[in-house]
Amino acid sequence: MGRQALTDDAREARRQELLAAARQLYRARGTLPPVADIAVAAGLAKGTVYLYFRTKEEIFVALLEDAFGRLFAQLLPALAALPRKKSAIARSFAQTYAAMVADSGDLLPLAALANGVLEQNLPVEPMRRFKAGLAQGLAHAGQQLEAHTGLHPAGAGESLLLQTYALTLGLWQALSYPTGVRALLTDAGLDGLTRDFSAELPLAVERLWLGYFPAAAS
């Protein structure tokens, strides 16, 4: 008698088990683990992994998709709650956004790998789905920002949010050093490079947003 096919719910549950195993290994090691290790951690055969993901990179882009999904889910209500007084918007958003980023888990480490590592070996369809999801989430959030604050012209909200993300990722990469390099930065004269990301991010975001919502505005 043939093996019974998994239901859609069972397939999704197994997919989530694989993602959970990959996430756990990535956090423990700080690098992308081999597919064989992910299979062992999930209690599955290596071949089973390829029924759900064609490459290791596809697994980690799926984790990145999940992380972006959680960020957008927090971002939309945060934008809707921005103060109506334009002069208060920049600081309010910067503080709320910095807290969201601090709670974003693996988003920034995985995003830093995306262009140089993950996307290089990603099949076309998962790549298209990933990019389409990002574009849709960004457009939706940008439209909400414009509707709530009166920001114009059309597309300005999307542009501001894209700039905010680029600033965030760039700042994180600039201030995230390997352990050996961080130890080196304790040398005299190098302390200017040891800024704290969590402290610098809200300051940088507020300055960016002040270009769109000046503090002197009424």
Description:
It contains ten helices and no strands. The protein is an all-alpha fold and 218 residues long. It has two domains: 1-53, Homeodomain-like (Arc Repressor Mutant, subunit A, Orthogonal Bundle); 55-211, Tetracycline Repressor, domain 2 (Orthogonal Bundle). Helix 4 (56-80) runs antiparallel to helix 5. The radius of gyration is 20 Å and the shape is globular. Residues 12-71 form the HTH tetR-type domain. This is TetR/AcrR family transcriptional regulator. Keywords: DNA-binding. InterPro entries: Homeodomain-like_sf, HTH_TetR, TetR_C_34.
What's the SSE blueprint?
Blueprint: H1 8-29, H2 35-42, H3 46-49, H4 56-80, H5 89-102, H6 107-114, H7 124-149, H8 156-175, H9 179-184, H10 197-210
DNA-binding region: 34-53
Domain HTH tetR-type: 12-71
InterPro entries: Homeodomain-like_sf (IPR009057), HTH_TetR (IPR001647), TetR_C_34 (IPR041483)
> What's the number of helices?
10
Order of helices and strands: HHHHHHHHHH
Mean of residue pLDDT? 89
Tell me what the CATH architecture of the largest domain is: Orthogonal Bundle
At the fourth level of CATH, the homologous superfamily of the largest domain is Tetracycline Repressor, domain 2
In percent, how much strand structure appears in the residues? under 5%
Secondary-structure content class: mainly alpha
What CATH first level of the largest domain would be assigned?
Answer: Mainly Alpha
Low-confidence stretches: none
Could you please say which CATH topology of the largest domain applies here?
A: Tetracycline Repressor, domain 2
Shape: globular
Pfam families: TetR_C_34, TetR_N
Organism: Zemynaea arenosa
Protein name: TetR/AcrR family transcriptional regulator
GO molecular function: DNA binding
